[in-house]
Amino acid sequence: MIKKIISTFVATLCGSLMFEARSFDPQYEQITFNNVIGSLVFGLIYISPIVIVFGIPSSIMIDTIIRNLKTKYRHVIEISLYVVFGAISTEIILLILALGDGISTFLEFGSFFILALSCSVPFGLSSILLGYRLNKSPSK
Fold first, then answer.
1. CA 54 from centre of chain
2. What is the pLDDT of residues 91-105, one digit of tens each?
3. pLDDT tens, 49-66?
4. Which of 40, 54, 65, 76 could potentially form a cystine with 89 if both were Cys, beta carbons 3.0 to 4.6 Å apart?
């Protein structure tokens, strides 16, 4: 479970950094410490619940799919599954947003998908690396 918590933190941090990078407009604001921290906190507030609700169950499902897979491309398949689950999560979020205001939020799929990939790929990579590290650590 500690693997999932650390992966959630890494994914949330990466998603917040991507949110900060996409929302920054150099024509209207300067790069200051307060602007960066404010955008990161805003991203953390809105991204962490989404990563918790969609990321942890997706990771558990991917772990059960990958558990019995014995191939040398196991990690590539696992990262691909994280990308697919990120796309599915993006569609679910856009459907929920479309219910609220009735406008077509699917025009924003590209921006949401980039944000979803900035969360799902680091989540998958950190999960794989932590799983590899925890399996290779000497037992006490």
1. 9
2. 888 888 777 666 666
3. 888 898 889 988 998 988
4. 54
Q: What's the rounded Cα separation, in Å, for the pair 71 and 139?
A: 26
Cβ atoms < 10 Å from Cβ of 99: 9
| Environment class of 12 (CB within 10 Å of its CB; exposed 0-12, middle 13-18, buried 19+) | buried
pLDDT of residue 101: 65
Secondary structure in 3-state letters for the chain: CHHHHHHHHHHHHHHHHHHHHHHCCCCCCCCCHHHHHHHHHHHHHHHHHHHHHHHHHHHHHHHHHHHCCCCCCHHHHHHHHHHHHHHHHHHHHHHHHHHHHCCCHHHHHHHHHHHHHHHHHHHHHHHHHHHHHHHHCCCC
Residue 49 identity: P
Closest CA to 67 of 49, 59, 34: 59
